[in-house]
Each structure stands twice: as C-alpha cells, then as structure tokens.
Design a protein that fits this description.
By secondary structure, the protein is an alpha/beta fold. The protein contains seven helices and five strands.
Length: about 160
C-alpha cells in the first residue's frame, strides 16, 4: 500500500458518489496498469442500463479486457468489496490485484442486514482462493469515507 493506492481508492469512492447522484447504486471502480496509469473508471449502472450485471467492477472489466491482454500487473480499485460475480470477472480477466474500501460485511449491515433477500455473502478472498492463480487483495481500507455514498441508500 502506498499513497497512490489511497488516492485511487478515494477516486473509486467519488465514483460511487457520482453513481448515487445519477440514480444508480452507490458503487465505483477503476483499473490501473502496473505503472499506475488509469485504464478506465466506472460506476454502477444497473438501474440506468436495466442490466443487473452492470456493477462498477463488471463495467470496468468489460471496458478494459480484450482477448490476449495481459492484466496481471493491473490493479482494480473498488469503493466496496467486489461481490462473487465481480470477483469471478476480475479473476477471469487476469487482473492481479484488488484494493477495496468498504467490506462486504459492512455493506450488508448498511443495506439492512443479512436477512435481505438480495444478500449473497461471499468474500472476494474466498472466491479468489478457489482459483488457479493468485489475486492479491488489500482491504477493507478507508471504511469511514466509503460509508458516505452508501449510508441511507436502501432506507
């Protein structure tokens, strides 16, 4: 972890705020290459696109991944811990590192608790651990900042 990681994570949190302002769910993500250049920025767009798979991380991966691209040196920064679907896409894209702010457990508590019918509690580390290559995971980080765009959204 270094100051660049914190800066990129704050950008992801800002993207989450933008998503909420646009009427979508409050999640943001960006991907950088190994040199720290931003390859793409994305926010959740499931409501505006009417596509349940349009999570911020999925949108970012879709924007960057092309057949033959080597993303092992890339980092995905997310305002919240990637869900199981997004973790699968991250893994299969070959992205080598994930840095996230808000933990999945904290998100669940902010969204109404584990009794919600839409909760699928599966940490990204658990998904990546079942794969054939390593994905380095850093997080949760900056949880107090990352709560801001999420708090009250599902109330």
């Amino acid at each position: 972890m270094d100051t660049r990681d914190i800066d990129f994570l704050r950008q992801a949190i800002d993207l989450a705020t933008q998503a909420r302002s646009r009427g979508d769910e409050p999640f943001g993500a960006l991907i950088t290459d190994s040199a720290g250049s931003v390859l793409t920025k994305a926010y959740n767009s499931i409501d505006s696109s009417a596509d349940i798979t349009s999570h911020a991380e999925m949108n970012a991966v879709r924007d960057v991944w092309k057949p033959g691209i080597d993303l092992r040196g890339a980092t995905l920064y997310a305002s919240c811990e990637p869900c199981a679907m997004c973790s699968g896409a991250i893994f299969w894209s070959g992205i080598g590192r994930v840095v996230f702010a808000l933990s999945g457990d904290t998100l669940i508590s902010l969204a109404g608790g584990p009794q919600s019918p839409l909760v699928l509690s599966l940490p990204c580390r658990s998904v990546f651990a079942k794969g054939g290559h390593e994905v380095v995971v850093c997080g949760p980080l900056l949880e107090d900042e990352a709560r801001f765009p999420v708090e009250g959204y599902w109330n």
